[in-house]
Amino acid sequence: MSATHPGAELVQQRRLVTELPGPRSRELSARREAAVCAGVKVALPVFIAAAGGGVLLDVDGNCLIDLGSGIAVTSVGNAAPAVVAAVHAQAEQFTHTCFMVTPYEPYLAVCEELATLTPGGHEKRSALFNSGAEAVENAVKVARHATGRPAVVVFDHAYHGRTNLTMALTAAVMPYKHRFGPFAPEIYRVPLSYPFRDPPGLSGQQAAARALSLIEAQVGAEHLACVVIEPIQGEGGVIVPAPGFLPAIAQWCTEHGVLFVADEVQTGFCRTGDWFACEHEALIPDLVITGKGIAGGLPLAGVTGRAHLMDAVHAGGLGGTYGGNPLACAAALASIASMREHDLAGAARRIEAIAIPLLTALAARCPAVGQVRGRGAMLALELIDPATGAPNPALATQVIRACHRAGVVVLSSGTDANVIRLLPPLVIPPELLTEGLDVLTHAVLTAAAPE
Ligand code: PLZ
Question: Is 222 among the domain residues?
Answer without folding.
Answer: yes
